[in-house]
Amino acid sequence: MKFIHRVGYYLGGFSIGLIILFFFLSGKKTSCAYSPNARTTKNISLKKKAYAENAVFAMRSFELDTIVVSDMIKHGNVNFSESDTKNETCKTYIITNSYKEQKFKMQVKNCDSLVTIESIVPYKK
Questions:
Q1: Cα–Cα distance measured from residue 54 to residue 3, given in angstroms and rounded to the nearest whole number
Q2: How many other β-carbons are positioned within 10 Å of the β-carbon of residue 73?
Q3: pLDDT at position 8, please?
Q4: How many other CB atoms sit within 10 Å of the CB of residue 64?
Q5: For the CA atoms of the chain, what is the radius of gyration?
Q6: What is the pLDDT of residues 83-107, one digit of tens each?
Q7: DSSP H or E run through 60
Q8: Crossing angle, helix 36-46 and helix 66-74, to 10 degrees?
Q9: Main-chain phi, psi angles of 27, to 5 degrees
């Protein structure tokens, strides 16, 4: 069999496989969260959230609402060097993000079924 025939069969099978995958995965909420940052923010975003008094006070003073905070968590960067990931029951993460050109650092406690936003403070890097 000539090389061009083998390439043709390969491309034909590959394209059929892509079409089948497209139909199977269309309409489903599939995502690729492979990096540690993406896995952590996805895990925190999917859980029910509670807000500590410090966080509520900061949200009022910086005019943040729960939707903005959730979006900041979902698209934020986890600082693993400052986070406490050794605790087995509830891990504490430091998430940084910006809103209206102001940078914020959030301390988030991630337990099994509940996420508690403990503090939101502005910072300069």
A1: 68
A2: 22
A3: 93
A4: 20
A5: 21
A6: 988 888 899 999 999 988 899 999 9
A7: helix 53-61
A8: 150
A9: 85, -10
- Residues 61, 30: Cα–Cα separation, whole Å: 37
Q: Which long-range contacts (CB under 8 A, 24 or more apart) does 66-69 make?
A: 68/99, 69/106, 69/117, 69/120
Q: Which residues pair with 70 in a beta bridge?
A: none
Q: In this structure, are residues 79 and 69 in contact, taking their beta carbons and an 8 Å threshold?
A: no
Q: Where are any strands of DSSP class E within 11-70?
A: 48-51
Task: Could you list the beta-strand ranges (E) of 1-125.
Answer: 48-51, 77-78, 91-99, 102-110, 114-122
| Tens of pLDDT, residue by residue, the chain (125 residues) | 889 999 999 999 999 999 988 887 776 676 677 888 999 999 999 999 999 999 999 999 998 999 999 999 999 999 999 998 888 889 999 999 998 889 999 999 999 889 999 999 998 86
Cα distance between residue 91 and residue 44, in whole Å = 11
Q: Can you tell me whether residue 117 is helix, strand or coil?
A: strand
